[in-house]
Design goal:
By secondary structure, the protein is mostly helical. It has a single domain (65-259), classed as Orthogonal Bundle (MetI-like fold). 76% of the residues lie in helices and 0% in strands. The chain contains 12 helices and no strands. The chain has helices at 12-33, 51-56, 58-63, 67-98, 100-114, 121-129, 133-157, 161-169, 174-208, 217-227, 231-258, 260-263. The longest helix has 35 residues, at 174-208. The chain is globular and about 80 Å long.
Length: 265
Amino acid sequence: MSPWRIRRPVSRARAIALGAVPIALTLGLWFGLTLGAAEERVLSPVILPSPGEVVGSFPTLWWERALSRSVITSFLRVLVGFAVGAVTALPLGIAMAAFGRARAAFQPLTTVMGYLPIPTLVPLTLSLFGTGELQKVMFLALAFFVYLLPLTVKAIDDVDTVFLQTAFTLGASTEQAVRKVLVAIAAPDIFQALRTGFGVGWGYILLAEMVAAETGLGNIIIISQRRGPREHIYLVLVVITALAFLTDRLWAWAGKALFPYREAR
């Protein structure tokens, strides 16, 4: 049987082994490019430090640059920005998908926002909210809003009309049809959109902390790029990846608890 048969399932053990190959090749290439004395390397340590140098710089990142405080600060910014964006996007998305007038009223605005590059929101929020903490939270909130709104609309749109027809036949009110049919059936997909959006927020945190951020993971990267050490840039990227992975696992656990029937399919 051909190993390249389309959509052929792969065992878990084989999937782990295959997934480890590109990681091993990447690490091997990194070792090779940074092997030897600084003047003998293919890439200067100013551009790419060796894996050993990156790991060895962790104590200074933790103690001298207060990594733990920056992790907490960035996490709270992502969390608050996500909460503001979700609280705004979910009701509007549900209304747009449920009611034609709401969709007609907000569709042009949401279409324009969908084409808006997220980095352009940085100068916009700086103009509106200054350079303080409010600007960072509002930038993240707008970024989450732009991401979550169309996914919420799609999740509600995907609910089969037959469920609505059945509800109305049984005497459901409009409010009941929206809450107990549309939202209830679309809830797993909305939850998945929230889970994915929260993970995307860790990519936005670097943009949020570009200007006038005294603490935060993005601030460490920017200062390390300007003043060094460069090793801290790579360490912070690993920390952000680890945080995104751990929070995604928490979302996955919550999803299994809330929607066990979806996981069983």
